[in-house]
Amino acid sequence: MSDGRSDILDGAITPSDNAVLFGHAEAQAFLATGYRSGKGHHAILIEGPEGIGKATLAFRFANHVLSHPEPAAAPTVIADPDPGSVVSRQITAGSSHNVLHLTRPVDEKTGKVKSAITVDEVRRAGRFFSQTSGTGNWRIVIIDPADDLNRNAANAILKILEEPPKRSMFLVLSHAPGRLLPTIRSRCLPLSLKPLTDADMTKALAHLDIRLEGEQGARVLAAAKGSVSEALKLVHYGGLDIIDAFDHMLAHPDDAPARREMHKLAEILAAKDSDTIFDFFATLVARHVTGQARAAGLAGDLAGAERFARLSSELSERLTVADAYNLDRKQTVLSILDDLRTAGRLA
Question: Average pLDDT by consecutive 10-residue portion of the chain (347 residues)?
Fold first, then answer.
């Protein structure tokens, strides 16, 4: 199901709608036990790789809290949300007065999701608490993910975290907690989630009507690295083809067919509505370059490690500038691939 946002992957179920969570049994038990004790932390930093179920867990826990508003009477197990309950219906519809989902907003002019969570979004949290101050209910803010907060928004959230309202709870999601303000991290209780096991991945994808079979299924599991969102990009967005073309180019940097593959790949990534697969490519490049830097360092090749580390920084900046100024994606991709070819020859 999709909520109409352009950043919801094809075949995905939005976290607020998803009644089933695969894996993370220990994390669920931790949250349920902490809440029942009445001593649970007011801000929990749910951290881990993208696409492993952090947002689904957050909405699931929010449902648990609102369904059992008195901690001492709450069960120690978080059950699947009851789709027929008032709490579940309101959360799913986005109409709950007790849950606020802060995420990157949609630009009304372009219809696309903005690149950051802005301070205007965080101000919604201030209004949310002021409008519900006399209800006595739990009020839960899900920041999804906090990595997307710009500097002003992060500082605004920090002020609220420093003096949280009564019966308030913050579920702060992060794919890369090291990028968050240290002051935000210090005010949250960390809860680290691991990538899904192959068994849980298989179940989660089957829940989305994706059956992993044969060699291709094995490739999807291996390349997804425990992330359902990565698997969806591999299955529905041609991610495996992108990987094949990328690997062929790296293995044969001066081969004429490889150069043709480069141009074909650049055209695909520059096509209209290709944001998802372009981001997939950018992540693929980042992983390759950082992997090369790490390998060079382990082999004692400090010059090579420094060269790839510098290249990683340069490519990241180039992608940021290209996105900010809406530069031609085909030329951006070709220039990146050329740099990778050159770096490969020097390795």
Answer: 59 95 97 96 97 98 97 97 96 95 90 90 93 86 97 96 95 96 97 98 97 95 97 96 91 83 90 89 95 96 95 94 89 94 77
- Omega before residue 145 within 30° of 0, cis: yes
Query: Rounded to whole angstroms, how far apart are CA atoms 18 and 214?
Result: 28
The CA distances from residue 143 to 13, 57, 319, in Å, are 18, 13, 25
Determine the structural domain holding residue 47 and report its residue range. Answer: 25-192
Q: How far apart are CA 146 and CA 129, in angstroms?
A: 19
Of residues 235, 212, 323, the one with CA closest to residue 51: 235
* Last residue of one domain, picked from the residues 173, 192, 211: 192
Full DSSP string of 264-309: HHHHHHHSTT-HHHHHHHHHHHHHHHHHHHHHHHHTT-HHHHHHHH
Task: State whether 253 and 330 are in the same domain.
Answer: yes
Q: Strands 139-143 and 99-102, how do they pair?
A: parallel
Q: Say which amino acid occupies 269.
A: L
Total of domains in the chain = 2
CA distance readout (Å), 34 to 59, 65, 194, 277? 16, 11, 20, 39
Query: Is the Cα torsion angle 54, 58, 59, 61 positive or negative in sign?
Result: positive
∠ CA 76-204-190, nearest 5°, is 50
Which residues face 46 on adjacent strands? Answer: 173, 191
